[in-house]
């Protein structure tokens, strides 16, 4: 099954589109004639200049909305605006995530555990996604195929955790995976044409991976364009019974 058809253009929403993988999705979808309208969200104009300039070049296709994913009221407002405009979505990709910033570094050891930092990881990387699932449901309730994907990370796999470290990031991505698995079960009842998945993009050359790239072999560090092409391939090949699964960039299923 595919959510993309030549006959009727699909509507897409890319959340966290200011930079990195989210911006890469916008750059790809803007060139795809099977996509009608693209809605995107960003949190602050300072890091969204490229996104805003694409929106200025394609005003009929691309709409940018402000959304800080830690504020449920902003999530609700954005989705209401989209609903008032187009009523149905076919592709939603949540690309928001945090690993580090000026006041947050992934923990190397238990000594560095701090509850405030853990809360930030969970609020951005896991809780936001289930709030999106809550508010997006009405826009998926239509008879056409659709996909709700969240970008997760292989380090969130409990079964695959051999190295340890990065407590907050790992646990928040494991939490994201559980939220999406549980969402998939409820969506199956309430919006059966929607496939819900989490996706591991592979190590991708973005702000998020930048401080950790030096030990990554060149062939394992993907460009944003490469990652987006692979994840689009994975999504276009999803089958109904793939809902609730966790996929890697090559289409293989990852262990929980
Ligand atoms: N890059 C990799 O190697 C890699 C590997 C595995 C998984 N991932 C996952 O892939 C996804 C995309 O990451 P990326 O590599 O593209 O990172 P990135 O370039 O740092 O982009 C992260 C995005 O999240 C947004 N964001 C952060 N906090 C937010 C908040 N409170 N509200 C709204 N938006 C917020 C950022 O917006 P601002 O511009 O406003 O900060 C930005 O658009 C993340 O979920 C990440 O965990 C990445």
Give the SSE map.
Blueprint: E1 10-15, H1 20-29, E2 35-42, H2 49-57, E3 62-66, H3 72-86, E4 91-94, H4 115-140, E5 146-151, H5 167-190, E6 194-200, H6 224-236, E7 246-248
Parallel strand pairs: 1-2, 1-4, 2-3, 4-5, 5-6, 6-7
Bound molecules: NADP nicotinamide-adenine-dinucleotide phosphate.
NADP nicotinamide-adenine-dinucleotide phosphate binds near residues 16, 95, 124, 153 and 207.
Structure, explained:
Helix content is 38%, strand content 15%. With 256 residues, it is an alpha/beta fold. It has one domain (3-248): 3-Layer(aba) Sandwich (Rossmann fold), CATH 3.40.50. A seven-stranded parallel β-sheet has the order 3-2-1-4-5-6-7, with helices on both faces. The protein is globular. The protein starts with 9 loop residues before the first strand and ends in an 8-residue tail after the last strand. The mean pLDDT is 96.
Helicity range of the residues? Answer: 25-40%
Using only CA atoms, what is the Rg?
A: 17 Å
The kinds of small molecule bound in this structure are:
NADP nicotinamide-adenine-dinucleotide phosphate
User: What share of the residues does DSSP label as strand, in percent?
Assistant: 15-25%
* Low-pLDDT sequence parts: none
Number of individual domains: 1
**How many strand segments?**
7
Structural class given helices, strands, pairing? alpha/beta
CATH class group: Alpha Beta
CATH topology: Rossmann fold
Largest sheet: spatial strand order: 3-2-1-4-5-6-7
Distance between the termini: 25 Å
SS field, number of helical segments: 6
What spatial form do the alpha-carbon principal axes imply? globular
Mean pLDDT over the full residue set? 96
**Which architecture would the CATH scheme give at its second level?**
3-Layer(aba) Sandwich
């Amino acid at each position: 099954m595919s959510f993309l058809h030549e006959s009727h253009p699909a509507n897409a929403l890319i959340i966290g589109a200011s930079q990195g993988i989210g911006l890469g999705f916008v750059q790809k979808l803007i060139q795809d004639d099977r996509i009608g309208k693209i809605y995107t969200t960003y949190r602050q104009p300072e890091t969204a200049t490229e996104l805003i300039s694409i929106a200025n070049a394609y005003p009929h296709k691309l709409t940018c909305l402000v959304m800080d994913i830690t504020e449920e009221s902003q999530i609700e407002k954005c989705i209401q605006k989209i609903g008032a405009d187009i009523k149905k979505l076919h592709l939603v990709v949540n690309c928001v995530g945090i690993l580090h910033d000026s006041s947050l570094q992934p923990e190397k050891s238990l000594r560095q555990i701090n509850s405030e930092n853990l809360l930030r990881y969970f609020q951005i990387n896991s809780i936001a996604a289930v709030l999106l699932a809550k508010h997006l449901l009405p826009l998926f309730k239509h008879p056409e195929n659709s996909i709700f994907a969240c970008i997760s990370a292989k380090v969130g796999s409990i079964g695959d955790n051999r190295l340890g470290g990065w407590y907050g990031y790992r646990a928040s991505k494991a939490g994201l995976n559980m939220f999406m698995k549980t969402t998939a079960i409820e969506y199956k009842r309430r919006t059966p044409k929607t496939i819900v998945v989490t996706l591991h993009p592979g190590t991708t050359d973005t702000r998020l991976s930048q401080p950790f790239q030096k030990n990554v072999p060149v062939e394992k560090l993907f460009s944003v364009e490469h990652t987006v092409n692979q994840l689009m391939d994975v999504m276009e090949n999803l089958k109904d019974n793939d809902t609730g699964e966790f996929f890697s960039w090559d289409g293989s299923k990852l262990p929980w």
